[in-house]
């Protein structure tokens, strides 16, 4: 099981790696807007492909053109490097 990172380590990693997510307690959160519902679904499908490859899946909320992603390693009870790695990959989607 991956090691849980403390808040300072997560904040430092976000800054050092240029990951554009915010930390809310034991979750990393990113809100993305796309053009309409179809654009939001396309983005979710791209995230889904990354998540399947990583075998690590975010919680996803779709509200028409807005997608909210939440990452946490539930089995570890907090944030781990798995979350940071997937967040960085999602950021590359634009």
The biggest beta sheet is recorded as: 4 strands, antiparallel
Strand order of the largest sheet: 1-2-4-3
CATH architecture identity:
2-Layer Sandwich
Looking at this structure, what is the CATH superfamily? Transcriptional coactivator/pterin dehydratase
Tally of DSSP helical segments: 3
Question: Ranges with pLDDT <50 over ≥5 residues?
Answer: none
State Rg.
Answer: 13 Å
Q: Kindly report the CATH topology.
A: Gyrase A, domain 2
Strand content: 15-25%
Element-by-element helix/strand order: HEEHEEH
Number of structurally distinct domains: 1
What is the helix content?
A: 40-55%
Structural class: alpha+beta
Rough shape?
globular
What is the CATH top level name?
Alpha Beta
Could you give the count of β-strands? 4
What labels would you give this structure?
4 strands; Gyrase A, domain 2; single chain; 3 helices
Describe the structure.
This protein has 94 residues and is α+β, with helices and mostly antiparallel strands. The chain has one domain: 2-Layer Sandwich (Gyrase A, domain 2), CATH 3.30.1360.20. 44% of the residues lie in helices and 22% in strands. It has three helices and four strands. A four-stranded antiparallel beta sheet has the order 1-2-4-3. The longest helix is centred in the middle third of the chain and has 19 residues, at 36-54. The chain is globular. The mean pLDDT is 96.
